[in-house]
Design a protein that fits this description.
Layout lengths: L3 H7 L23 E8 L5 E3 L7 E5 L2 E5 L4 E8 L5 E3 L4 E2 L6 H13 L5 E5 L2 E5 L5 E7 L9 E8 L5 E2 L8 E5 L2 E5 L4 E9 L2 E4 L3 E2 L10 H13 L3 E5 L2 E5 L5 E7 L5
Antiparallel strand pairs: 1-2, 1-3, 1-10, 3-4, 4-5, 5-6, 5-7, 8-9, 9-10, 11-12, 11-13, 11-20, 13-14, 14-15, 15-16, 15-17, 18-19, 19-20
Length: 265
């Protein structure tokens, strides 16, 4: 992948998205919200939408930047001034969860853009990050908090029962919806239902009743389905983090990580 700034300078024709922005006063703090990425600049400086069913977000908090790159959690540092100058360290750490190739490529491109940011603008519920040529390279909106219940959740990582949380193109087929003590969804091949009770952040999920269909594709889906249902039953606590949900066991190990389904209905 070519460096973004170099490609932008060589581009013969720039789109409207790459035109310069006039400076605007900030109307709220950079640190007042959690931000969800809506679009990012490609090598020609044209804004691209995120892959379907993927989610990237960022939290700026007292010099520390962290969030989700779509698969892995990332961590870095930043410095912001009242003049809307913003610099983000190129020393970015991240978790190392396996993910689908397309999601991984998008995540790496996103992380490569962060150190190229030189200033920012806040417009209503939008955060715009610009580079040294005053071109928009990352555009976010305020992330609204999801609720455990009456939200359609889509798995982004499932514990494989061997101590690892893994992700593949099939992971997103596993869904869940919590509503008035009844959990329902699709385990990847079969529909399932189970009872659940919550108290604070504690959750107990009963044994799942599932249909008995066999699916040959995608490869490994039946094994993943069993891992998913077992992970649900072993859940002991849940934690909401804006646009995603984590289920953990009694020892605190991550069992399932969900994001809000892209067609949440």
């Amino acid at each position: 992948m070519k460096p973004l700034i170099h490609s932008c300078l060589l581009a013969a024709a720039m789109s409207i998205a790459c035109e310069g922005f006039a400076a605007m006063p900030a109307n709220e703090s950079l640190e007042s919200s959690e931000w969800q990425l809506e679009s990012y600049a490609d090598e020609t400086c044209e804004l691209q939408q995120l892959l379907p069913k993927s989610s990237i977000h960022a939290i700026f908090d007292n010099g520390k930047l962290h969030g989700s790159g779509g698969c892995n959690q990332y961590f870095s540092q930043y410095n912001a001034t009242q003049e809307q100058r913003l610099s983000i360290s190129d020393r970015i750490a991240s978790t190392m969860m396996a993910c689908a190739p397309a999601v991984s490529q998008q995540e790496q491109h996103y992380l490569s853009l962060l150190p190229k940011v030189t200033h920012y603008q806040l417009e209503d519920d939008a955060l715009l990050l610009l580079n040294a040529q005053n071109r928009l390279i990352l555009q976010y909106t305020v992330l609204q908090s999801a609720k455990l219940e009456q939200t359609r959740w889509q798995a982004s990582g499932i514990n494989n029962g061997k101590g690892g949380v893994v992700s593949s193109t099939a992971t997103q087929l596993a869904t869940a919806r919590f509503e008035e003590g009844k959990l329902s969804g699709n385990a990847g091949c079969n529909n399932f239902s189970a009872s659940y009770t919550i108290s604070g952040e504690s959750i107990i999920i009963g044994s799942a009743m599932a249909t008995r269909k066999f699916c040959a594709e995608p490869e490994g889906i039946m094994a993943q389905e069993q891992q998913y249902l077992q992970a649900l039953q072993n859940s002991h606590t849940y934690k909401l983090k804006r646009d995603h949900l984590e289920l953990r066991n009694e020892k605190g190990s991550l069992l399932v990580r969900f994001v809000v389904h892209s067609s949440n209905e």
